[in-house]
Amino acid sequence: MSNHKKKALIVVDVQNDFCPGGSLAVTRGDEVVAPLNKLIKEFLDRGEPVFKTRDWHPAKTKHFKAYGGVWPVHCIQGTHGAEFHPDLIDDPRITIISNGIDDSADGYSGFDGTQLAQLLRAQGVEEVWIGGLATDYCVKHTVLDALQEGFRVKALADAMRAVNVNPADGARAIEEMREAGAEIVEQSAVARP
Q1: CB neighbour list of residue 78: distance below 8 Å, 6 or more residues apart
Q2: Of 19, 90, 119, 137, which one has the fewest beta carbons inside 10 Å?
Q3: DSSP 1-47
Q4: Domain 8-189 falls in which CATH fold?
Q5: Contact assessment for residue 154 and residue 185, using Cβ atoms and an 8 Å cutoff
Q6: Per residue in 15-68, pLDDT tens?
Q7: Number of Cβ within a 10 Å radius of residue 105
Q8: Domain residue ranges of the chain, discontinuous segments joined by +
């Protein structure tokens, strides 16, 4: 009998609008694609669940500057900007989680207003590995909510990039995740069964 804990991979918001050339581009955001693709393949090969979250905003939301928020328009439902980066692996076994749908909420976390926690529990998942965009917003909030939901969390330092509205926001976010109980790891160095 194995004492192996069932794991899931959560790929956060690797969408065109958050990558170079997008309306809310994260510097070097496209660099997360290769390490995440490697993990997606490994998880799928082992039959472990993979989830991709996406910002899926309505055209009018308090999240955008024009309606009282702080962000430029991005990731509007059904637009090219909301599509996943073209090099990110697509596979029918991957579950897509849409967040930010509520026009009165920011929806930073993949758990916010979604069924993600229930889906993870239904599959017996105890540990989640999380990477994507952006370290200091959607990744951080997804990590913190996963911990709050009782999952063990590995946050993938080399598979995330920060917006850095303020220069040290990414570093602060990593420290906040670590202090909350996440294990900060390099995906390339993590031993896998």
Answers
A1: none
A2: 90
A3: ---PPPEEEEEE--BGGGSTTSTTPPTTGGGGHHHHHHHHHHHHHTT
A4: Rossmann fold (3.40.50)
A5: yes
A6: 999 999 999 999 999 999 999 999 999 999 999 999 999 999 999 999 999 999
A7: 14
A8: 8-189
